[in-house]
């Protein structure tokens, strides 16, 4: 069931979220590199592809479309109505929900849960991160594999600085600048798009999580880290893909 969660989209301003069709132009997915890495990680730890997968912060649902080739039961969640409207139009065969990852409760479990594209980094406060961990746990069964794409705090210099859109309707270039706010463990990104119609300014803060901190949050919610993975150089070069296994509450 959809709920009105748009009020949670507060300090984020992003041209690509207002025009989801542009999201997949700017982030072209490098031939589904993230989804293919996820398949490898899932196979490493389950010995096969899972029967079910929930993608939290799924955006346009592109990764889900790829993963659905081998996983029959998939669902996606995002708190932005515009992203889910677009995902439903483009991928009508997939189940999507407009929900906030802090409060999401679908009332069922999945064999795999993914959270790609720094979706978790949009949650800033410690207590909210705990709520998201509780969401992961509440949709897990023993041995569920969780894969998080997080910003490696030691590789923020590898985050993309320039962006391009070149489609018949629109040509635009953007430059991003990043600023650390160490006391809050936030990384602020200001991005300015230049288009024929003028400038557009984007703004977002990413919460940085150090590895031991992430391990602590996960452990408190009965997940144990299985390993950290990277994509080949140049692809999502600031990303760590952290895989964890749900032990179950009694462990
Ligand atoms: C950079 S996009 C990544 C989308 C997709 N996972 C990908 O990798 O292409 C981050 C997504 O996280 C979503 N998001 C951020 N905070 C959220 C929250 N509290 N609950 C649900 N989704 C959230 C945003 O709406 C956005 O679609």
UniProtKB/TrEMBL annotation:
MF term (GO), any: methyltransferase activity
GO biological process per UniProt: methylation
InterPro entries (UniProt xref): Methyltransf_25, SAM-dependent_MTases_sf
Gene3D superfamilies hit by this protein: CAC2371-like domains, Vaccinia Virus protein VP39
Keywords: Methyltransferase, Transferase
Domain Methyltransferase stretches: 54-142
Pfam families: Methyltransf_25
Protein's UniProt name: SAM-dependent methyltransferase
Naturally occurring in which organism (per UniProt): Kibdelosporangium aridum
Classification of source organism: Bacteria, Bacillati, Actinomycetota, Actinomycetes, Pseudonocardiales
């Amino acid at each position: 069931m959809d709920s009105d969660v748009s009020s949670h989209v507060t300090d984020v301003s992003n041209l690509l979220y207002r025009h989801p069709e542009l999201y997949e132009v700017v982030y072209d997915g490098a031939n589904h590199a993230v989804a293919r890495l996820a398949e490898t990680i899932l196979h490493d730890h389950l010995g096969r592809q899972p029967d079910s997968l929930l993608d939290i912060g799924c955006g346009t649902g592109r990764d889900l479309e790829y993963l659905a080739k081998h996983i029959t039961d998939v669902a996606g969640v995002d708190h932005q109505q515009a992203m889910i409207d677009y995902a439903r139009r483009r991928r009508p065969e997939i189940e999507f929900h407009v929900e906030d990852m802090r409060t999401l409760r679908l009332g069922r479990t999945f064999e795999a849960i993914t959270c790609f594209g720094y979706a978790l980094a949009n949650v800033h406060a410690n207590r909210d991160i705990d709520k998201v961990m509780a969401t992961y746990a509440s949709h897990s069964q023993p041995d569920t594999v969780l894969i998080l794409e997080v910003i490696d705090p030691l590789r923020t210099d590898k985050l993309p600085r320039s962006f391009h859109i070149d489609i018949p309707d629109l040509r635009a270039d953007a430059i991003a600048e990043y600023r650390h706010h160490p006391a809050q463990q936030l990384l602020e990104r200001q991005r300015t798009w230049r288009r024929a119609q003028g400038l557009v300014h984007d703004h977002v803060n990413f919460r940085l999580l150090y590895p031991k901190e992430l391990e602590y949050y996960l452990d408190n919610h009965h997940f144990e880290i299985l390993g950290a993975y990277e994509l080949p150089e140049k692809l999502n070069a600031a990303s760590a893909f952290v895989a964890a296994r749900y032990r179950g509450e009694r462990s």
